[in-house]
Amino acid sequence: MHCFFISIFLINVAYVLCALSGFYVDDGVGQTVIERLMTNDDQQVIEHEILDLLGLSKRPRKRHSHSSMSKSAPQFLLNVYDKLSAEANNAHTRHVRSTEDKIIFTEADDRAIDQSDIIMTFLNENHHVSEVRHEKGRRLWFDLSKVDENMQIILAELRLYQLNQKNKYKKSNESMSLAVYSIMNIDGEKDLIKISETDISTNRDGWIEINVTSVVELWKMQKISNNGFYIGAYYKSRPGTEIFC
């Protein structure tokens, strides 16, 4: 039985699709020259191949995102590769949290990486989910259809990026609660089941890691039940009032 470590990210998307102008070849004297310009059909074929490789059904709409967010999923896998390479060479590296460079590994990550045969990352996708009773939070959906039900999941983490928005909050360092729910279909209606609640402050930048192994296990076995996550934020001083996030 293969063991999985799954890390899923709230980001707009990591763009690897770029303006491709033509096909290039080696001219035999150490230089690369253009062989012919690409047609629109050529570009569409290559674009579809890249999207298929990334597991995306269509090219995502471009949105402004924090530079750390736009590269988070591929950066995570690159960090895993660096970690394993360093260990293979008996090197010891010290991980430092950085919002612009490498994503830190938690102790749970280290254990899961050591025990896993396969590591997968997923990006938040646009997916229709019918209304739930809340309106101010964020709905997230990840396509987990490629996770085989016979695979054992060692750890599944949801990684959320918090960006310090100084002008958004009345107080610069107010305490908040960040709640993560799974959107469940109960008696024909959408309902929220709380997975985790974390205390945060409004003046921080960085990644928040949340263990969602149990709900991902459920979605692995019952793929039709994957209605995604709901993220809600609340001031600690006013726990009954949800704010926009």
Give a written overview of the molecule.
There is one protein chain. With 245 residues, the protein is an alpha+beta fold. It has one domain (3-22, 31-243). Helix content is 22%, strand content 33%. It is globular.
Brief overview, please?
The chain has 245 residues and is an alpha+beta fold. The chain contains five helices and eleven strands.
Which features would summarize this protein structure in a list?
single chain; 245 residues; alpha+beta; 4-stranded mixed sheet; 5 helices; 11 strands; growth factor activity; signal; disulfide bond
Helices and strands, with pairings:
Layout: E1 3-9, E2 22-26, E3 32-37, H1 40-54, H2 67-70, H3 72-88, H4 107-115, E4 118-123, E5 138-140, E6 152-162, E7 175-186, E8 189-201, E9 206-211, H5 213-221, E10 229-235, E11 238-243
* Shape estimate: globular
Output the structural class. Answer: alpha+beta
Number of strands: 11
**Count of helices?**
5
Integer tally of domains: 1
Biggest sheet architecture: 5 strands, antiparallel
- Proportion of helical residues: 10-25%
Q: Rounded to an integer, what's the Rg over CA atoms? A: 21 Å
Order of helices and strands: EEEHHHHEEEEEEHEE
Kindly report the average pLDDT value: 69
- Span from first to last CA? 39 Å
Q: Roughly what fraction of the amino acids lie in strands?
A: 25-35%
- The stretches of 5 or more residues where confidence is low (pLDDT under 50) are 10-21, 62-70, 92-101
Subcellular location: Secreted
Main location: secreted
GO molecular function: cytokine activity; growth factor activity
Family: Belongs to the TGF-beta family.
